[in-house]
Specification:
single chain; YaeB-like fold; globular; alpha+beta
Length: 98
C-alpha cells in the first residue's frame, strides 16, 4: 500500500518535534523517528484500526500521539498526527478542518 502524508500531518510532526526538543536535545529527533516508523507500518496494517470521526486512528507506540488516516483504494492518506493529551473537541475540530 502506498502512503501519502498531507502537509497538515507534517505540521503536526514539526510542532511535536519542537515541543520534545525543549525537553532534551535529541528527544525531538527521536520523536520524529518514532512517529515516522509508526506511519511506515501503515503500509502493511492500514485499515485495521478503529474508526473515530470518519478516520482510522492508530495510537503511536512510544508517545501519546494518534495518527489519523483514511484508506482510499490502495493509498493510505495520513491526515493528522495529534497529541492525545488535548481535549477531544479540539482534536475533532482539527480533523474537521480538512
Amino acid at each position: 500500500m502506498q502512503l501519502r502524508i498531507l502537509p497538515s500531518a507534517f505540521g503536526d510532526l514539526e510542532r511535536g518535534k519542537d515541543f520534545y526538543a525543549q525537553h532534551g536535545p535529541e528527544l525531538g529527533d527521536y520523536f520524529v523517528d518514532a512517529l515516522i516508523a509508526d506511519i511506515d507500518s501503515l503500509a502493511l496494517y492500514a485499515g485495521i484500526h478503529m474508526k473515530i470521526w470518519g478516520f482510522h486512528r492508530m495510537l503511536a507506540r512510544r508517545f501519546p500521539y494518534a495518527i489519523y488516516y483514511q484508506v482510499d483504494h490502495d493509498i493510505c492518506i495520513i491526515w493528522r498526527v495529534l497529541d492525545c493529551r488535548q481535549r477531544p473537541s479540539r482534536m475533532r475540530r482539527a480533523l474537521s478542518s480538512k
